[in-house]
Amino acid sequence: MTTDPIWRDPDWRGPGPGPAPEDAEVCVVGLGGSGLAAVKRLTESNRKVVGIDAGRIAGGAAGANGGFLLAGTSAFFDEATEVLGEERAGEIYAMTESAIGTLVGDRARAGSLRIAGSPRELESCRNHLEGLRAAGFKAEWYVGSEGEGLLIPGDTTYQPVHTARRTTERVLEGGARLHEDTRAVRIKPGFVDTDRGPIRCDHVIVAIDGLLGSVVPELAGRSRSERLQMLATEPVWRTVTTRAVYRRWGMEYYQQLPDGRITLGGFRDAEGDEAWTTSTETTPEVQDSLDELLQGRLGIDAPVRHRWAATVSYTDGILPICEEISPGLAVTGAYNGTGNVIGRLCGEALADQYLGGRSHWLDLLGG
Length: 367
Ligand SMILES: Cc1cc2nc3c(=O)[nH]c(=O)nc-3n(C[C@H](O)[C@H](O)[C@H](O)COP(=O)(O)OP(=O)(O)OC[C@H]3O[C@@H](n4cnc5c(N)ncnc54)[C@H](O)[C@@H]3O)c2cc1C
Known about the structure:
There is one protein chain. This protein is α/β, with parallel strands linked by helices and 367 residues long. The chain has helices at residues 33-44, 77-84, 86-104, 119-134, 160-173, 212-215, 284-297, 339-355, 360-366; strands at residues 24-29, 49-52, 68-69, 112-115, 140-144, 147-152, 156-157, 177-179, 184-188, 191-194, 197-207, 224-233, 244-247, 252-256, 262-266, 304-314, 321-326, 329-333. The chain has 2 domains: 24-64 and 160-222 and 317-366, 3-Layer(bba) Sandwich (FAD/NAD(P)-binding domain), CATH 3.50.50.60; 73-156 and 223-314, D-Amino Acid Oxidase, subunit A, domain 2 (D-Amino Acid Oxidase, Chain A, domain 2, 2-Layer Sandwich), CATH 3.30.9.10. The protein contains 9 helices and 18 strands. The mean pLDDT is 95.
């Protein structure tokens, strides 16, 4: 049994800590999916970029998540429409759908299944379906072995660490300098002090989901860290599902990897307020509930080989924090549990803003 997420790539050695950090035009703090997206955009524009991470690249939530790529915000589309209005919610949905395409390329999409866990949720699935169809997005009703609910064919899954590895290799080739095991201890506009030395720059982009409020104390009142947990089994030789499945308002989710292994997560409600923590220890309350889903409902008795936890942040609403908090210092994070797609768009948008281009994504988030 390991507490490493299933996605870890034993063959990949990242760039390591490297020499003492140096000056740069832009310093990106946090090298998960969103930080790497910012580095990539800036490198492609020939900017002198330094990226630092306190641990390994994609060593936080970016390499410890469910691997789902779902379009839209953290709210179901019909609910997002109520909060944001039809046009804004529709544009956000369309941009995230297209970002999924950028992430997975031509690879066939598995689709996602939102399965109802109660009659009330079944009704919500119907509203969700109607909302998507009315706005011209693809979705269909689903009844099958996983249960009854909604099938969204444009959603899919990915291997987050492989994606991070590809991006890392590309930006290093493009001239970016990335330092692992290098922690930012003080961040100011145009300056990052690290435990390996200072970095002077024109601009800082902080791209940290889970620990956002600790690293940028100004945001502590607007974001809250929460622990999410998962497990993964040895290969299961029957087909359990071919899609990204989530149920009970997203509180439970699973997929089966091409090699047959099941990854399964959720039950953040099983530990109540204890989940509001930056600790990444797994807990029996949640892991027992995951076992119950695995063995009881899915009928799988394959041995569990990985159990892990990681931290994300939530805001009070359905949109993340993604903004310049003062000239020379921009931040992104608090993706409300769903940052694989939105986080990338946010990282790119903050890079675009630094490059002087307009960012339609930032306009949409800002309202
Ligand atoms: C169990 C779980 C399941 C999830 N499932 C999904 C899913 O299926 N689909 C989905 O879209 N989202 C999912 N999420 C959320 C998603 O993983 C995150 O929103 C996303 O990965 C955020 O990526 P990031 O790059 O912004 O941040 P992070 O992955 O949090 O990366 C931030 C990086 O910053 C580094 N860092 C922290 N402090 C410092 C410092 N002081 N100095 C330097 N570096 C620092 C960390 O080491 C880390 O590598 C899940 C999350 C978890 C935990």
